[in-house]
Amino acid sequence: MKRDGSVIYGSNVEILKKVRTFKDGKLKLSENGLLEQDENGKIISGDVRNTWAGFVTLQALFVQEHNLVCDVLKVQLEDEELYRHARLVTSAVIAKVHTIDWTVELLKTDTLFAAMRTNWYGLLGKKFKDTFGHVGGLKKPENHGVPYSLTEEFVSVYRMHQLLPDKLQLRNIDATSGPNKSIPLTNEIPMGDLIGGKGEENLSRIGFTKQMVSMGHQACGALELWNYPIWMRDLIAQDVDGTDRPHHVDLAALEIYRDRERSVARYNEFRRRMLQIPITKWEDLTDDMEVIKTLHEVYGDDVEQLDLLVGMSAEKKIKGFAISETAFFIFLLMASRRLEADRFFTSNYNEETYTKKGLEWVNTTESLKDVLDRHYPEMTDKWMNSNSAFSVWDSSPQPHNPVPLYFRVPKH
């Protein structure tokens, strides 16, 4: 889910208009809480390319969030003002959830918990930020002398397709159960049946609640070698309008190819440029003898040829980290940079821009669980036994700093 909200609102005028109702500032949404479809049966949303049922579920959730914000702000505002303010508020909620909720589960240590909250609230903490209205404590945007952009290096370390499974374990939410009881499986559905148009059709049958609860109770895959989703090795990609392209894609191979074609530095040089220590032999990278043997077969003794994505997947993880140390350095820089460079989180983070109720909405939202609580309180109350929606929902409420169960699963 992009932090600018473009997957909900769109990135050009045509799509921005297509997703709107032009009534009370709201976005189009079906009566069942899922995204509407157009006359061709394609979903109406900001980004309809290469979707899968889980992603469409989250798109629908934040359309609901936008529409609820419109209801809250409705008293004195017309359609256009309602839409613009609700878009600002919802996009800020997404950015905040990403910063202090999702990232904290990805890097589950006490230090990172404090660091990401400092990123959002500043060194003086939540009370200061809520009072004076500057994310991270900054009064105006800071570009550090370079215009803001998402760099190729950031795109490269954000390749996390191993997190997706080959099958979704659908849960029987009609069975008698609660947060301290396991929910029985209904069946396993191949991910190939949950992508594109077929995925949208199946989601309509599954429904929002069953899809969300099923995802909440299934751990993600680990960011490791030999753990790439099989269905992504023979993938039908789509154009921007959601139309299938004629040629299949091996996404794992394509990700390596993209980095090479875009001149992203290979693993060792990448680390040097980030002032990290490069490896001199395969044993510096990993203790896994099977991995060392395979790396030698592919790259010989030349560690300088090691591709970035392969190196990050093979790299020994820091305790509590789902991602590699190499990727973490980029995350650390960009997480701060994206907030610092945005006037809507610095000079314009105020009641005049967001409205008083809108700013309060953002300030009082701390997690994805808060968003789910607003729209599906019976779902979180009955099935979520976790402080974060990004942890496995039936795990213990406060585990002591482990690698989250969310990521710890056997290789596919």
From TrEMBL:
Q: Name one GO biological process term.
A: defense response
Q: Which residues are involved in binding heme b?
A: H161
Q: Name one GO molecular function term.
A: heme binding
User: What Gene3D superfamilies does the record tag this protein with?
Assistant: Haem peroxidase domain superfamily, animal type
Q: Does the keyword DNA damage apply?
A: no
Q: Which PROSITE patterns match?
A: PEROXIDASE_3
Its keywords, alphabetically, are: Dioxygenase, Heme, Iron, Metal-binding, Oxidoreductase, Plant defense
Q: Sorted alphabetically, which InterPro entries does this protein's record hold?
A: Haem_peroxidase_animal, Haem_peroxidase_sf, Haem_peroxidase_sf_animal, Oxylipin_biosynth_metab
Is the GTP-binding keyword given for this protein? no
The protein's name is Alpha-dioxygenase 2
Biological source species: Solanum lycopersicum (Tomato)
